[in-house]
Specification:
The structure holds two protein chains of two kinds. By secondary structure, chain A is mainly alpha-helical. Helices cover 72% and strands 0% of the residues of chain A. Chain A is globular and about 65 Å long. By secondary structure, chain B is an alpha/beta fold. In chain B, the strands form six sheets. In chain B, strands 6-9-10-3-11-12 form a six-stranded mixed β-sheet, with helices on both faces. Classes of the chains: A mainly alpha, B alpha/beta. Chains A and B meet through helix 1, helix 9 and helix 10 of A and strand 2, helix 10, helix 11, strand 20 and helix 13 of B.
Chain lengths: 399, 509
C-alpha cells in the first residue's frame, strides 16, 4: 500500500461511492426489520408445531384472513362483468380492507411514539392519549347538532387532537418546568385517563343504561368507501396524510430540525440556541394529538361510539411499532400495516385452522425482541451492520 | 541490553482502514520508548493490541523473548504489561487502597478484605519509586498529579515491568509534568521499561531514550533524541514541513467588545467555581486565559456563552449588557463559540456534516424560508465550507461521528467563522488534535484577530496560550491571579501563577 490509509479521500462532491453507501444503508435499515419479522414467523411456526398444529395451514388461514382469497376475488370479478352485480367482488375485498381498518389506529399511535423518540422522549402515554382523543371526538361528534359535515367532521377530529394533545402536554410541561421524567408521568396519566373515562361513561357521557357514549352524528362520521359490511373509511387515508405531514415536519422544517437536534444531542441543541424544554412541551403535546387521532379515527370511522375498554392496547403496541419502524414515518406506516394485517388475519386463523389468536401476540412479541436486540438477528444470519449514526431512541432514566 | 518487548510486522485492519501496517518496534529493558504520532496514526490501536483488547491480523508479539498471544487485559497484566490510561480509571469516593485493590482483592479467611496488606504494599511501592502517596487518602481529595501516581501504583501493584502511559501529561501543570518525568526516571532506574505515548514534541525530547514516530498506521521513522530536533520530529509526524511558530503581527486592539465585571458562577454541582472575575477583551487582540483544567474556566465560558446562568455579575457585549443564560441572543449579537467539548456541545455526531455546518443559523435565511429548510442552500453551504476549510471527509452526507477529531474541529471552526462575528470565544480549540490541525486552527484564529475580531482563548496548554495571546490572564481556584502582557510573560512565572503562587512572593521567599 502506497497510499496513507487513515486519510479518507479528499473528494467532497456527493460522488458515486457516497451515494452507493447511502442506498446500502437504506437497504440495511430495511433488512433488519424484515429478518426480524421472518424470524418471528419461523419461531411462531415452531410454536404452532409444538402445540400440535400445522403451521402451513395456520399461516394460509392467516393470509386468507388478512388479504383475502384470490379465487374469491376472481369469482367476484367474473360475476361483476357478467351481471354488473358488485356484491361478491366487494365481499372478496373484505379481509384486505378490514386489515387496513385495523392498521389505522396503529399508524396514528405509532407516529405519536415515534415523534417522541425523535426528540429523545419516551411517550408511554399513547394509550391514555388514544382514549382521551376518542372521548373528545365522540363528545364533539354527538353533542354538536345542526352542523354540515364539512364543519362537523373537522371539529370532531380537532376535538380528539385537542383532548389527546392536552394529555400529552401535561407531562411535557411537568418535564420542562420541574424536570419530572416523562416516562413516569405519561404512564400515570394513562391511569387517570382510564378512571376518568370510567366516570365519564357512567355519568356525564352516558347514554341509556349502558356505560357507552351516544352514537356520533352522521355528519361527524368519517365517510366509508363501500357499503356495509366493509368498514374501510377515510381514516386510513387521513393516517397516510398525517404520516406524510410528520415526515415533512421532521425532515423538511426548522421545527423538525430542532426536534431531532434536541433528541440527538440536547447539549448541542442548547449550544446552538434552541430552547430544549420548549421542544419537550411541544413534542409531547404533538405526540398526544397524534395519539388522540388514533382514537378519533376509530370512533368517527369505525365504532361511532366509545365504550369501556375502548383502546385495545394501541398505545402500548405503538411503542413496539415505533421501534420496529425506527421512528421514521415510513417505517412506522409499514410496521403498523404489518401489525394490522396480523391482527386482522388472526381471527380467521383461529376459526379456520384452530390456532389460538395468542400465537399472533407471540409473533409480535418476538418481532419486537428481535428489533430491540438486533445483535440476535445479526448473529443468526451472520450479517455485519454498520451502527454508526443510529438514531438515539431515548436517554437514561435520570435526565 | 535485552529487548523486553518486540513487535514484528503487527498489522491490524478495520473495515476500510489499515490502522496498523506492519509495525516493528522494540523496547529495551530500562528504557523509555516514546511513541509519537498524530491522532489517527495508529498509536491507540497498537496499544490496544498490546493490552489484548484487539487481536492483530498479522505479526508477532514477543515479550521477554517469548512469542505470545495476548487475550485480554488480564493476560497482559499476567505477562507484566500495565497500562496507565489518559482518563483515570479511579473511583473518587474511595481511598487509594480501595482503588488499588479493586479487581484483585486479597482477603482474610476468604471473606474479609485484607486492606492492611494492600496498604503495606502501597507504602513499599511508594517508597521504592519515590511516589509519595498516602494510601488512606480519598481520591477526590488528591490533586490530578497525585491521582496519576495512584494509577501508576495500580500498575506496579500488579507487578508490571512494562508500563504503557497514554498521553500522561494532558492534564498536568508544567510543574507536575516535571514531577512525572522524575518518577519515570526512577522507574527505569529500578529496572522498569516504559512506553510513553504522546503527540507533544517537547516532552518526547525531554524524556525519551528512543523515539518511534507513527504516521498513517506505519512507522515513519525511529530516532534518538540527541539526533532529533523538534522540526525533524514534526516533519516525520505530519509528513511535510510544519511551521511550529505561529507567525503574527503585533496586535492593534481598538474598541472593547467584551467586558466582564465581578462575575460569579456555580457549576452543575452548585460549587462556586468562578469567584469575582473581571476582564475585558478588545477588538483585534487575543486574551488568553491560562490555568490548569478545572479552575473555573469551563464555567466562565458557559456563563459568557449563555449555557449557564451566572449567580451575579455583569457581562457587556459591545458596551451593552447581556441577559444571562440566553445562548441564542448572545449568538445573534455576534459571538462565535468553539466549545471545549466538541462532541458534547459543538456537534450533533449522528447528523450529517451539512446539518452541522448550519447548526446555529438553521432558522435564518438563507437556510430557512419561513419554517421550511432550504436543502439546496444547506448542501451548497456545506460543500463550500468543506472546500474552504479543508475538511477531509468522503462527502458532506456522512455523519460527523465518522470524521477524525481534527476534521470535526474544522467543521466547528468553519461553521463559527462563516457568520459575521465580533467576538470569538475559543475554549481548548486544539485539544487532542494533531500538529497539522493545530497549525491550521492557530493560523485561522490569528487571521480572525487581524480582521478585527476580539478573541478570548481559553486553554490549559501553556504553549498554545503563549503562542497566540497578546495578553494572558491566569485563572486559579475561580479567580484571575494576574493579567500580564504576553511579551513579558515567562513560562516559569505563568506556571507558578497556575499553581496559585505569585512569582514575586515566591522570589522573595
Amino acid at each position: 500500500m502506497s497510499e496513507r490509509p487513515t486519510k479518507p479521500p479528499e473528494s467532497i462532491q456527493p460522488d458515486d461511492a457516497a451515494k452507493k453507501k447511502e442506498t446500502a444503508s437504506w437497504r440495511q435499515s430495511l433488512l433488519l426489520p424484515a429478518l426480524a419479522v421472518l424470524t418471528g414467523l419461523i419461531i411462531g411456526g415452531i410454536v404452532i408445531v409444538v402445540s400440535g398444529g400445522n403451521p402451513f395451514q395456520a399461516y394460509g388461514a392467516l393470509f386468507a384472513g388478512s388479504f383475502g382469497t384470490p379465487s374469491d376475488f376472481f369469482a367476484g370479478l367474473q360475476v361483476y362483468f357478467a351481471t354488473g352485480e358488485s356484491h361478491d367482488l366487494i365481499r372478496s375485498l373484505y379481509p384486505f380492507t378490514e386489515s387496513l381498518v385495523a392498521s389505522t389506529p396503529y399508524i396514528f399511535a405509532a407516529l405519536s411514539v415515534a415523534i417522541g423518540f425523535r426528540c429523545g422522549l419516551f411517550n408511554i402515554g399513547a394509550e391514555g392519549q388514544v382514549l382521551m382523543g376518542a372521548l373528545g371526538s365522540a363528545y364533539v361528534g354527538y353533542s354538536l347538532t345542526g352542523l354540515p359535515a364539512y364543519i362537523h367532521l373537522p371539529l370532531a377530529l380537532l376535538g380528539g387532537v385537542a383532548a389527546g394533545g392536552v394529555w400529552g402536554m401535561i407531562p411535557g410541561y411537568l418535564k420542562a418546568r420541574f424536570g419530572a421524567h416523562e416516562v413516569v408521568n405519561t404512564m400515570m396519566l394513562n391511569w387517570i385517563a382510564f378512571k376518568l373515562s370510567d366516570w365519564l361513561l357512567n355519568g356525564p357521557m352516558k347514554s341509556g343504561f349502558r356505560p357507552v357514549t351516544p352514537n356520533v352524528l352522521p355528519t361527524a362520521e368519517l365517510p366509508r368507501f363501500f357499503a356495509d359490511p366493509l368498514r374501510f373509511n377515510w381514516g386510513f387515508v387521513l393516517a397516510l396524510l398525517v404520516a406524510w405531514a410528520v415526515y415533512w415536519l421532521l425532515f423538511k422544517t426548522t421545527l423538525g430540525f430542532e426536534i431531532r437536534s434536541v433528541g440527538a444531542n440536547p447539549d448541542a441543541a442548547k449550544y446552538s440556541g434552541m430552547n430544549v424544554t420548549r421542544n419537550f412541551v411541544f413534542v409531547l403535546a404533538l405526540a398526544g394529538g397524534l395519539a388522540g387521532l388514533a382514537g378519533s379515527a376509530q370512533v368517527l370511522g369505525v365504532d361511532h361510539w366509545v365504550g369501556q375498554g375502548f383502546s385495545a392496547g394501541y398505545g402500548y403496541d405503538a411503542i413496539a411499532l415505533a421501534l420496529l419502524g425506527k421512528s421514521h414515518p415510513l417505517g412506522v406506516v409499514l410496521s403498523a400495516l404489518l401489525f394490522g394485517f396480523l391482527r386482522s388475519g388472526a381471527t380467521s386463523m383461529q376459526s379456520m385452522a384452530g390456532i389460538p389468536i395468542d400465537i399472533i401476540s407471540i409473533i409480535q412479541g418476538l418481532v419486537v425482541v428481535f428489533v430491540a436486540a438486533p445483535a440476535i438477528i445479526r448473529w443468526i444470519y451472520r450479517i455485519n451492520i454498520d451502527t454508526t449514526g443510529d438514531t438515539v431512541l431515548t436517554r437514561g432514566w435520570g435526565r | 541490553m535485552a529487548n523486553v518487548l518486540e513487535l514484528h510486522g503487527v498489522t491490524k485492519r478495520f473495515p476500510g482502514v489499515l490502522a496498523n501496517d506492519h509495525i516493528d518496534i522494540a523496547l529495551k529493558e530500562g528504557h523509555i520508548l516514546a511513541l509519537l504520532g498524530e491522532n489517527g496514526a495508529g498509536k491507540t490501536t497498537l496499544m490496544n493490541i498490546l493490552y489484548g483488547l484487539y487481536k492483530p491480523d498479522e505479526g508477532r508479539i514477543i515479550v521477554h523473548g517469548e512469542e505470545v498471544d495476548i487475550h485480554g487485559p488480564n493476560d497482559a497484566i499476567a505477562r507484566g504489561i500495565g497500562m496507565v490510561h489518559q482518563h483515570f480509571m479511579l473511583i473518587p469516593v474511595m481511598t487509594v487502597i480501595e482503588n488499588v485493590m479493586l479487581g484483585v482483592e486479597p482477603t482474610v479467611n476468604g471473606i474479609f478484605l485484607d486492606k492492611a496488606r494492600v496498604a503495606a504494599r502501597i507504602r513499599e511501592i511508594s517508597e521504592q519509586f519515590g511516589l509519595d502517596v498516602d494510601p488512606d487518602s480519598y481520591i477526590k481529595d488528591l490533586p490530578v498529579g497525585i491521582q496519576q501516581r495512584v494509577e501508576i501504583i495500580k500498575v506496579l501493584y500488579r507487578n508490571a515491568n512494562i508500563l504503557i502511559l497514554d498521553e500522561p501529561t494532558a492534564v498536568l501543570t508544567p510543574q507536575e509534568v516535571d514531577g512525572l518525568f522524575q518518577i519515570l526516571h526512577t522507574l527505569i532506574e529500578k529496572g522498569k521499561s516504559i512506553i510513553f505515548i504522546t503527540h507533544k514534541l517537547k516532552e518526547v525530547m525531554a524524556v525519551a531514550d528512543e523515539i518511534t514516530v507513527l504516521r498513517g498506521g506505519r512507522v515513519a521513522g525511529s530516532v534518538l533524541p540527541q539526533e532529533a530536533s523538534l522540526e525533524k520530529l514534526a516533519t516525520l509526524m505530519v509528513g511535510r514541513d510544519v511551521n511550529l511558530v505561529v507567525m503574527k503581527k503585533t496586535a492593534a486592539p481598538t474598541d472593547v467588545v467584551l467586558e466582564v465585571q465581578d462575575l460569579y458562577v456555580r457549576d452543575e454541582r452548585e460549587n462556586l467555581t468562578v469567584q469575582g472575575v473581571s476582564f475585558e477583551v478588545r477588538k483585534g487582540e487575543v486574551l488568553g486565559i491560562a490555568g490548569v483544567q478545572g479552575n473555573g474556566q469551563t464555567e466562565l465560558v458557559y456563563a459568557l456563552t449563555g449555557l449557564s446562568e451566572p449567580v451575579s455579575g455583569q457581562i457587556n457585549l459591545m458596551g451593552k449588557p447581556v441577559r444571562h443564560g440566553r445562548p441564542r441572543e448572545i449568538l445573534e449579537r455576534g459571538v462565535a463559540h468553539i466549545p471545549e467539548d466538541r462532541q458534547k456541545h459543538g456537534l450533533i455526531l449522528s447528523f450529517p456534516i451539512h446539518d452541522n455546518m448550519m447548526l446555529c443559523t438553521y432558522y435564518q435565511p438563507p437556510f430557512a424560508r419561513g419554517i421550511t429548510l432550504q436543502q439546496k442552500v444547506i448542501l451548497d453551504n456545506a460543500t463550500e465550507l468543506v472546500k474552504q476549510f479543508d475538511v477531509r471527509t468522503p462527502s458532506i452526507y456522512v455523519p460527523a461521528s465518522s470524521l477524525s477529531g481534527g476534521n470535526q474541529q474544522k467543521v466547528i471552526v468553519a461553521r463559527e467563522f462563516s457568520r459575521p462575528i465580533e467576538l470569538l470565544i475559543a475554549s481548548q480549540p486544539t485539544r487532542g488534535l494533531d500538529v497539522g490541525s493545530i497549525e491550521y486552527i492557530h493560523n485561522r484564529i490569528i487571521e480572525k484577530r487581524d480582521e478585527g475580531t476580539g478573541v478570548l482563548l481559553v486553554s490549559s496548554e501553556l504553549d498554545e496560550i503563549i503562542a497566540l495571546s497578546d495578553r494572558i490572564a491566569v485563572m486559579y481556584h475561580g479567580q484571575i491571579m494576574a493579567i500580564v502582557p504576553a511579551a513579558q510573560a515567562t513560562k516559569e512565572d505563568l506556571g507558578l501563577l497556575m499553581a496559585g503562587i505569585q512569582p514575586e512572593s515566591a522570589r522573595a521567599a
